[in-house]
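Protocol step 4 of 6: structure prediction from sequence.
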Amino acid sequence: MEEKEIKDYPIVEVEWFDAQSSMDFIDIESLIAEKPYLTKSCGYLIHEDKEKVILGFMVFASGYLKHYQVIPKGMVKKIKRLK
């Protein structure tokens, strides 16, 4: 894979619906009324395809990441380029 520089990755905000779970007690009606959490993540857009969006938060010139997030594409509502 061709090594890219940090400036080659656009900075984006991804708006996406996060899954949730709990070990708490809840009645079924309340559980059915629950909605997925709308979440926003900002970072370097490392990769995007039909299955996933990958954000990098600590990107090194050596081509390594220290912190990243893989978001399933079906959970993504919107991607906005910030820079």
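Step 5 (inspection) to follow. Residues 6-81 form a domain with the SH3 type barrels. fold (CATH 2.30.30).
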